[in-house]
């Protein structure tokens, strides 16, 4: 068994870490406070090829592997989980069904601008009555000649405000249950398609989370993605793959919290010595480091399995749940180590805790 990254992966990791540390991290508090990810950060990430890591060069990507995607997710979320969320929701989630199930025309028209970072994408599945139960969605798509008419409302849509392209799931026949669900590509300026309420969230505040409203929204029949009635399969495959990157996101947040805690414990003096000299703090830091390392191994294994076309669904779920729980534990302990300072916005650990919680919720609870 080889636990080493390739030289190419190490170079990629160093590049993303340099960008995240020097250009993203200094803006992380402002992004959280203002609730918006600056356009210049997205453009710079796109110029580095991050929005097309797993997309082939034919469609504007760099043809990288899924492990590289996980590496990028970890490094970006280590600096700002909000920036990492914009990136992951667009590429890992929304773009995945178009790239996997789209025809050549759809891929050239929609995947290419996503991979180049020219357009942000969103994944529109969740509804008020269809969260974890994805098959219960109520949004309808009615066939009308060479078009479909969409009606319904989606909620909790990541990147909803910024997205120029939406991968939307709707039912063409409710009587067919799951087999009636189809996937569609909807462009932002389509008449009848609008952005509704934007949520005021606990964490990942720099990435919008909104309603998407479809009122007699007419789209070309050519925007049907894959086969009619096979939309749920496309949605679930995207979610399975995205669990790997959510695990990496949780991992990045946890690593940031650990790094800050270690520095603080060495610098903070109590009773005439650094906090790091106290065994209780040492045990806490050791447990944090151990859980982070275990989460990284689970995450990298799931990504490796996917890259090698091996079954990975169970391993992705295991990585996601363990990394998410680790992130919550580590960020909570980070605040404990920082004491009263950790509860204040002058230190970033309170943001890490707020950002970490969502990883236990989305992409499957």
If you had to describe this structure to a student in words, what would you say it looks like?
A hairpin with a 2-residue loop joins strand 2 and strand 3. Strands 1-4-5-8 form a four-stranded mixed β-sheet. A four-stranded antiparallel β-sheet has the order 2-3-7-6, covered by helices on one side. It has a two-stranded antiparallel sheet with strand order 9-10. It has ten helices and ten strands. It has 365 residues and is an alpha+beta fold. The mean pLDDT is 96.
Brief write-up:
The chain has 365 residues and is of the alpha+beta class.
List the helices and strands and how they pair.
Elements: H1 7-24, H2 28-34, H3 39-47, H4 66-79, H5 81-101, H6 104-115, E1 121-124, E2 140-144, E3 147-158, E4 165-171, E5 181-187, E6 193-198, E7 209-220, E8 224-225, H7 231-267, E9 269-270, E10 273-274, H8 279-307, H9 313-338, H10 349-357
Helix pairs in contact: 1-4, 4-5, 4-7, 4-8, 5-6, 5-7, 7-8, 7-9, 7-10, 8-9, 9-10
């Amino acid at each position: 068994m080889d636990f080493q990254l390739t030289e190419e992966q190490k170079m990629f990791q160093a590049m993303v870490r340099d960008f995240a540390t020097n250009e993203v991290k200094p803006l992380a508090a402002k992004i959280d406070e203002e609730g918006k990810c600056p356009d210049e950060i997205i453009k710079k990430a796109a110029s580095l090829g991050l929005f097309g890591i797993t997309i082939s060069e034919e469609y504007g990507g760099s043809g990288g592997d899924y492990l590289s995607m996980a590496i990028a997710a970890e490094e970006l979320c280590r600096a700002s989980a909000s920036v990492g969320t914009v990136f992951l929701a667009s590429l890992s989630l929304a773009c995945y069904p178009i790239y996997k199930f789209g025809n050549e025309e759809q891929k050239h028209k929609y995947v290419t601008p996503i991979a180049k970072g020219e357009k942000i994408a969103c994944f529109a599945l969740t509804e008020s009555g269809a969260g974890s139960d994805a098959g219960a969605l109520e949004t309808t798509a009615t066939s009308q000649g060479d078009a479909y008419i969409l009606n319904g409302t989606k909620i909790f849509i990541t990147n909803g405000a910024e997205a120029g392209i939406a991968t939307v799931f709707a039912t063409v026949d409710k009587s067919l249950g799951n087999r009636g669900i189809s996937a569609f590509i909807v462009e932002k300026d389509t008449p009848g398609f609008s952005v509704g309420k934007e949520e005021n969230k606990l964490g990942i505040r720099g990435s919008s989370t909104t309603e998407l409203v479809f009122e007699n929204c007419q789209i070309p029949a050519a925007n049907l993605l894959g086969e009619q009635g096979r939309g749920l399969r496309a949605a679930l495959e995207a979610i399975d793959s995205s669990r790997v990157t959510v695990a990496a996101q949780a991992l990045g947040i946890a690593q940031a919290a650990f790094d800050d805690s270690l520095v603080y414990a060495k610098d903070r003096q109590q009773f005439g010595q650094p906090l790091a000299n106290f065994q209780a703090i040492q045990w806490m830091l050791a447990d944090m480091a151990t859980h982070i390392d275990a989460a990284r191994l689970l995450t990298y294994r799931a990504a490796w399995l996917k890259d090698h076309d091996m079954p990975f669904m169970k391993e992705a779920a295991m990585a996601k749940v363990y990394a998410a729980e680790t992130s919550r534990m580590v960020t909570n302990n980070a605040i404990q180590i920082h004491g009263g300072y950790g509860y204040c916005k002058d230190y970033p650990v309170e943001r890490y805790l707020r950002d970490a919680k969502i990883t236990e919720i989305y992409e499957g609870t």
